[in-house]
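tokens incoming
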């Protein structure tokens, strides 16, 4: 914090986490997951993300949309649409050929994904069925 005081962690209604300086009452917003991913890429060797794909839970917010445009992300895959103006006012600004392509994720998410890997019957019961099947073939 600029004034040297320690802030306290809190949450805002919009879901942003922030630190509020107790001395000067300045709010410092923590980086969003997309922003953090962009920072990690540049930190780990400065690799380019030009024409890259951004995978995100929600379509990017206004702040992350600006960063995606600056980094020339060409495709954004999301699960849910974010309820703001970022797509219309930021990501679809300028020349149409430079707009990123939007794609809603198709597939299993959340607990449905993990259920794909949970056995329907227990391993012990499965082994018993295999043994019984082999005995009936003999």
């Amino acid at each position: 914090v600029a004034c040297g005081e320690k802030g306290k962690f809190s949450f805002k209604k919009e879901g942003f986490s922030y630190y509020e300086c107790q001395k000067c009452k300045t709010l410092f917003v923590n980086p969003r997951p997309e922003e953090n991913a962009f920072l990690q890429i540049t930190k780990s060797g400065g690799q380019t993300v030009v024409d890259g794909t951004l995978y995100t839970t929600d379509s990017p917010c206004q702040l992350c949309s600006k960063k995606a445009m600056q980094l020339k992300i060409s495709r954004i895959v999301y699960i849910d649409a974010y309820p703001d103006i970022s797509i219309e006012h930021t990501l679809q600004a300028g020349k149409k050929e430079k707009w990123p392509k939007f794609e809603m994720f198709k597939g299993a998410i959340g607990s449905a994904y993990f259920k794909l890997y949970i056995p329907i019957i227990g391993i012990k019961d499965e082994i018993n069925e295999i043994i019984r099947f082999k005995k009936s073939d003999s």
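note: The helical segments are 33-43, 62-70, 86-91, 111-115, 123-137.
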